[in-house]
Structures
1.
Amino acid sequence: MKDSAIVICRCEEVTLEELTNTAKEYKCSARELKLRTRAGMGYCGGRTCRFAIDAILMEATGNQTPDQIPLKYQPPVRPVSFQTLGGGCHE
Amino acid sequence: MNNRRILHHPVLGTMPERNAVHFTFDGKKYKGFEGETIAAALLASGVRTLRVHEEKETPRGIYCNIGHCFECRVTVNGQPGVRSCLTEINDGMVIESGKRQPTPLKRKEIARHV
Amino acid sequence: MYDAVIIGAGPAGLSAAIACAKWNLQVVVIDEFMKPGGRLLGQLHQEPDGTWWNGIKEANILVEQARALGVDIWCGVSVHHIEEVGQGWRVHTNKERIDTPKLLLATGAAETPAPVPGWTLPGVMSIGAAQVMTNVHRVRPGKKGIVIGINVLSAAITRELQLAGGDVVGMVLPPVNPITKDAGNPRKVMQSLLRISHLAPSAFLRMGGKLSRANWMQKLALTFYPKSGVKMWGIPIHLRKAAVQINGEKEVESVTICSVTPDGKRIEGSEQTMDVDFVCIAGGLYPLAELAAVAGCPFHYFPELGGHVPVHNERMKTPLEGLYVAGNITGIESAKVARAQGFVAGLSIAKETIQSADSAIDKHLENALDEVRKIRSNAAIQFHQDIHAGRNKMESIYKEQFS
């Protein structure tokens, strides 16, 4: 089974191969891995793949899972329209 | 009535009668029931593909079914990005699947248009 | 103005609301789903004494009790941000903004994936998705399916699919990759299944539960594992087979599986294809704590609780003033534990809101804490080993660093 056949981040269609290679090449942090590959940056905010990304990072870099969440959560944690963020109608 | 609905359940019992609602998905007419989600009504009608990936065009359906993954998002009455797994179906709803989007800033895309 | 806002209308959130309302607090419970009850709604299993745990009924009891006490429940409302403002918290939703002195996060858990080639095809869904479709919406996930990922949760839900008349051809392991190192290892999976062997109506597994405590015994059991799998409620469980590919042009058409060694290594040439039109992916659960993270709450990583957990004490308080947590956000356990934790959180909030010298509430709080411990100890199913150790560790971290 090829790692290029396994999609990890469904939103951005980033594969296991891409993530493993990037993590090994750059000895990345979770944030850097996200910025380099776009994994975890899609519509769901990484809710589906963040665990997988953490696991791939640990495997590639040999580091232990830290106590603080590796891939930072940013508000809004659900996609919202600019209208909602603006607090009402601004037509 | 098709076999996709579980009308009788050995422990949960028989489903109570519900009012039918009519809606369209990509222009085709479908029937669902009041109080159910768009995703459930479509699956009960045999529809599994709700959108394609905006860039790669690969097909997608429900994945988590509880609003976490956003894979089931559709356009409802003109509003895009609506999670079909959390949204109740209403009579007369016009639902559109998610389509491929142009990505003009990607090199391949530019080559395609030159 | 609400005395407290509760995010999540599952067993933890609802029972917290009930506890608050009993002490005359005005509370609102917010949930994204169209019905209150959270994931309790999908649950349906037989207790060791033979009675049925019907999640819909259990949820209705909580909802009716809450409503009778004047609790507001908003369904179909999503919270996308929370922030500390002045003496309390500001909750941003897709409908309106609410300020509150006390905020409880009872957002439950999310599923971890077990990625398999082809898992983005329509027809592939998480095991929880199939549970909700079947038991809540009463729609079949498909005609014939397979479950990838063998664990306590997926075994229970597969049984539910079968109960509703669903055709499940079996349960297999995910392929081994960095994400599924343990979930794809027959030996580790067997060890985790032994924790539910007392519930299994299968002589093989019950015997396994007694005999396989020793490592060499487990290896022997796996070496002679039947080719057709061991049946649990008539569903073949294949500890020596793994899914390697989900096939289909536009939707799921079949799954390719292969045999694996007792250590999970793929045996070349053993591939076979099974026709299915749905696939359930079961990777397990992790605490869904994104709102605690954006609030700036400190975290700690506990594999025994299912992942990163916001730091909190036994009374469900976080180190941030006015912010509380309860239920699966604090670690993966049963709905009964979540419900009991919610009650503790509600009493904690009430105690600090009314700040009375009345010792009655302290007595209630002590009883509620005892109840959590009792339910945890008596749990028929434990999702993670060493749950007690994890809870104790969290308590001492809170005491040492934050009180």
2.
Amino acid sequence: MSDTTAPLIHKQSFLPKDAMNALVRRLVDEGYTVIGPQVHDGAIMMRPLTTADELAKGVCDEQDGGRYRLTDGDSEMYFDNVVGPDSPKRYFFPPQQKLFTLTIKGERFQVDDTTPKPPKYAFIGIRACELAAIKIQDRVFGIDVDQQTFRCESDQYYRRARQNALFIVVNCTRPAGTCFCVSMETGPEAIDSFDLSLTELREGFIVRTGTEKGVALLGQLPAREATSAELELASMKLRRARDQMGRRLDTRGLKEALDKSMEHPRWDEVADRCLSCANCTMVCPTCFCSTVSDTNDLATGQVTRTRFWESCFTHQFSYTTTGPVRSTIRGRYRHWLCHKLATWWDQFDTSGCVGCGRCITWCPVGIDLTEEATAIREQQTEASDRSGRGFVDEWAE
Amino acid sequence: MPAHNLPTNSGAKPTLAVFKFSSCDGCQLQLLNLEDELLTLVGAVEIAYFLEARRRVLPPPYDIGLVEGSISTPEEERRIRQVRRDCRYLVSIGACATSGGIQALRNWADVDEFIRCVYPSPEYIKSLETATPIAAHVFVDFELRGCPVNAEQLVELLSALLLGRKPNIPTHSVCIECKRRGYPCVLVTKGEPCLGPITQAGCGALCPRCERACYGCFGPMEQPNIRSLANQLKNEQGRTNREVKLALRQFNGYMEPFKQAGDYYERLEQKET
């Protein structure tokens, strides 16, 4: 995804609908593990596929706080749905990964810490917000060498999987009810960092090339010059998508407001609803926390260290000798929201939120990040003199 | 180097004892179902008392005692005290041993009436008024949840005990297991009354994997926000107070805070009628 300035880059052309099969076949032939949106168990999931028939064609999604339903859509449309619970995060930063094994050899430990070789991934149908999330995780996992703020040690697996990946992004023409990428300035149209970008029309796609790799790939497909009517229709659909965002978040002064919101009464209200179940952090495409656990094999004595996705909503996450540092749900929700929208700036010089709306949709009780952040921002009250409510007999009449 | 660090009484392999109280034997069967790991386990410990598996019984003391089942009879009440004295580490395994189990549903009913209805000669039945977890009677060193317990967690527990390390048994929600494994949320996609967001992980998200709602057989997670989930089930899914109560009063209905919450929704239910 280097910024080259070859003349063909950012050229727009038209790709007919039936070329989707050829595109997927081409990628498979080139040795890519192709990941795309598919219907599984009532949701759009990002899973490996080998033919275009497996894509979630003709399927729409309805999303709202704590609610997700698939519906029948236009049978000609491949990408008339938006993001599901999955994101490319799962493939660059696997939910469970062996880090090393220790074997006792005589008086010494023998260490095996070879990083597994990731497949060469081609993502088809990821969205602009997901590209933005990948750029944020690049900083988190220390592979974005251009910027000064990263402090994490570079993650080898992430680096390899990420650098070999090919991105065919789809510009959203139908946002979901929980989308707010316009507020976060990440979508609905991808501006850079893709190999190819597609804007879907009924008869085909307006394709824009982003890299030499993308140009080479498109060269093997039956693309033709796009007509001015097609280009106009595509840009109209994108303009309309901008106006159809299900949610919005005014980010002006938000970081400053959150930074001084520690005793805001709103935290008590949201803590009454928050389940601390960690769904929001699991589906968030930028949340990156992990834990490690060591297990030993009774037969061989071999010890294995495994890394798992972890969440700041669990006790274990902040556990120290005296117990969890953030022992209340109020403290954990506040920590998560303030990190995502405010202290992420201090840490990585970017917001941690891309406006994909997953945390809203997949919260079992539909807690809305945009609503909570707006309440904190707009009800700037004097610092509450109570820090939490102390003991409450929860089941008293 | 020995395969274990657990100091033993005799310097030989540590001894393992498995005891049954009021239960269905399902958790003991999980131990026997280990298959691949079972031979390794037998190599690492001396199975000294495990009536479900072998006739030979070695005399106490035992290094590790696993206890299945709840305390439901006067005889069990006495026997668990002796078991505690006989074991260096005592671990209760399964919903019955950790919460009282399904039989603890009688704690909300009239046991004598049950006995009269079921048995032709009720005078032979000697039962306590309540079925209670092991920890209500003796100190236990660790509790392993589940109905039945998860075989992998059982191996993890024994491996940890034998090495003298802390077992990796998470206390967070089932949701984390679902999301790590890539199972779509049945509550959000189908409106199922899933208890996953208030239930402790450990099962591998068995039910959501089959597109079914979690019914809480691993008991409450750390700090469960039961009221918020119940409000969602009532307001968004149209469930009644009675349905919420029944959802909470299942395998772990007698474990706090499911118990208090179940009682609360029962009171709301009674107010309605």
3.
Amino acid sequence: MKPWALCFAGILWRELLRFLQQRGRFLAALVRPLVWLFIFAAGFRSILGVSIQPPYQTYMLYEVYITPGLCGMILLFSGMQSSLSMVYDREMGSMRVLLVSPLPRWFLLLSKLVAGVLVAALQVYVFLVIAWFWEIEPPLPGYLTLLPALLVAGLMLGALGLLLSSFIRQLENFAGVMNFVIFPMFFASSALYPLWRVKEASPLLHAIAAANPFTHAVELIRFALYAQLDLGSLVAVLGWTVLFTAVALWGYNPARGFVALTGKAGPPG
Amino acid sequence: MSATMPPALQLEALSYAYARGRPALQDVSFSVPPGSFTALLGPNGAGKTTLLSLVTRLFQAPGGRVLVCGHDLRQAPRAALGAMGVVFQQLTLDLDLTVIQNLRYSALLHGLSGTLARTRIEEALARAGLEERGRTMVRALSGGMRRRLEIARGLLHEPRLLVLDEPTVGLDVDSRREIVAEVHAFCREKGLAVLWTTHLIDEVWPEDRLVVLHGGRVRAAGSVREVMGKANAGSVGEAFGALTRGKAA
């Protein structure tokens, strides 16, 4: 058991070190949701009243409503970013070091995914601490029950990123992923507006949003932040996670994996 | 080395083709005896990097076998990879981490921790001549220092086989000469088997074993003298020229 634990500890330790040393990345990860919270939500506060709905016990400010969605946004960006960098960025070199170490490839990749999610979860907590001073004050046990929800949702989004980067060559740059994956997933979800409101506007968009894995992730986070379990969302997120992970690991098979697929094995020699 | 020991590396009938491309490797077989320095010599595009991708399990060959110290890479990948150290052509260090942080990460990946890891890291620093630079960011190291660090990292878990893919690419003449000499010395003194790919004939020493790869096929393999004899040549350069003339496929 020990080599496995050590290997995971090494992967997590490296992810944390890299994250803390890349201050720009840390700042960007934090500023993005804060801009939404401080500017977007404040602007829409008077336009979008949100009525009582579970898990909330009372009428809430719009900032309160979108906070779980912004937690999801942190996971979404982080998951896409780290999964893509696993494949295409300068990290290519360090991925090789990881992949030629002795433990099974599925374990190495899952460890890398989980380590990325834990780093993203850390960002979420820093965001929530700042949000608390903005009167986003979920119950204290919610901060605890949030962690497993973040892990499951983060793993789902990380696996989705890995899956996309394994199979779609056109998504080599992050701008493409922003336009075709992150923005559609984020906007066609319950992150910014409740699904019943979307239904009033467009039944089709409602159907898309209801099926969107990101909606399930956001709802799981929303309920967990108020120390409640949304079982339907949990089952959906777990299902998507298993599916995305299985396909991503299959795509990473060296026999037909992305290294061979993209021809980025390095210069021929 | 003992005659009963299996080869440090044995390749049996390896072939590989990229999607929609011509075969990169065809029926490649050769072995690296324990404690030997084996130079895999081939011009650019010969298939050296593809071959190392198969040996290190980055790719999986549809047929053939790779045995590392007797362990089949497909059947027992953990034992096979545990017996192997790898230095890639491309830099694989974390530039924004320190020398020691890079080594510690690699130690953990190989299941080394505590006192043992600390001892091995100190040895690696000494081997790379970087005792005073342990807390330096890798970004601040010269190309030669980075290469030495990568080699020392590849030896951290005390493998019996070290494979290096054109490790002197991009280095100045002095660093290149020093690194070639250092790895030959490890091989001689520690009984380490080395597979060293290159397209530069002056990196091959007279006592080395030599495999000439061209067009994805092995054109000759054996001691330097045997390969020169096969090509009816008076030097490694002449032999290389004769064996890699024209298309091999």
4.
Amino acid sequence: MAHRHLRRIVLGLSPLALLLLVWHVATVAGAYSSVLLPAPAAVWLIFVDSWPDLLRHTGTSLVRVLLGVGLAFVTAVPLGLLIGRFRPVEETFDWTIQIFRCLPGIALIPLAILFFGIGDRPAVILIWFSAFWPLIITTIFGVKNVERTLFKVSRAALASNLMVFTDVIFPSALPSILTGLRLATGAGWLTLVSAEMIAVKSGLGYMIMYAQVMFRADQVVAGIILIGAVGLFFDQSIQLLRARLCRWQDGLVIQ
Amino acid sequence: MHLSVSDVSKTYDQRGSHVLALDHVSLDVAFGEFVCLLGDSGCGKSTLLQIIAGLEPASQGGILIDGRELVGCHPDTTVVFQEHGLFPWMTVLRNIEFNLKARGMAAAKRHEIAARLVETVGLAGFEKKYPHELSGGMRQRVGIARALATSPKLLLMDEPFGALDAQTRSAMQAELLRLWAAHRSAVVFVTHSIEEAVFLADRIVVMTPRPGRIGRIIDVDLPRPRDPTSEAFVHHVKIALETLHTPRALLAPS
């Protein structure tokens, strides 16, 4: 077990280490001026010197994305469960979903600013919008894949509609919902950083834009690294959550 | 409890054409009786079971339980499904508790009943396992335990041992008879295996396909446990075999 963990870490970090090496060599060789391409060491200094600022911006971004994705979860999952279960509800919403899910959240930034001004509100609403569609689609998919026999078992057991949702449909669809959550956090995070570049005056996106204006390439790169790191963190957390909640799938599916 | 299948017909719409799955089927099952529905695929035996369970409506006729028309599923009836129908995300114990939970029984009480049933079906030590961690025979034991949890008066079984290997299958048949002797109830058991039907049933309802009808009802008056190699046993198998393979016109009207 320890051996496998070690292997995972070594293999997982090796492309990143290679990238770091290429980056370092490029700066030493002087491929670009250091104003455009800062050395890894220079970026490291940003982390050392201005970590309180970085932490503050990262924290702001994190809160927004958690709020937006959380909001998407509590709205998309219940609606998705209903759509997947009841045909008329699906017939009502299907076309609307297919239209709206094709709109990139970023395209709605101008509208969001017009309606909600500058600040947290447009950012959170845009994240909610981006996270909503992957979640609702995977939820519907999850419900539709519930084994038909299990509905018969429930009916023969005289289970209430509510119990069918809580004890049959939801747990059965949970792996699919968590896949949706993974996609949703990715989409939300992507939208957030873009939104912060335009619609807000704080957060990692804003920090990067501001650093660009100030010709601080080292800060730009530090911001990019943080965005990537948070993305990885989200993904791993949801994977962990899935491993915990869907233990019954161990050995059933390849994870 | 008395089950009465009263002149039931069932038609399906299949790509625009009507398919007659059951054609005026009538049958009575008394409490404590073990009845097998025997027939080749397409004879409507599973459909009939679904209708008795209240999971499918009859197109014509109806089901009477103690003289009352069945609407939906009956609380005294439980079903053991083909391929077990267990919830893959529930442990053995929680699967067995499901029917009790659906009836609103308090958690402590249903744990107690489920724990006792785990012992009864010989799965002690496997309470916390998930269905996919069990063998086929063990899964079906869980399915049977779940069905017995509510102390049903009518137990409906839809080819429950169809997916099992021959050895496990005969072990499960003996096990089922033991449980049936302990938890007396009426059993309607669907199978396409003649030997299984003769081994288990008090009466064998032989069904013939296209459209599904009752060909003949064979009384099996052999003492249990039955010996599949005995002359009487083989004789009953022969009768069933003949019925299955005789053109309908030659059969006495049922």
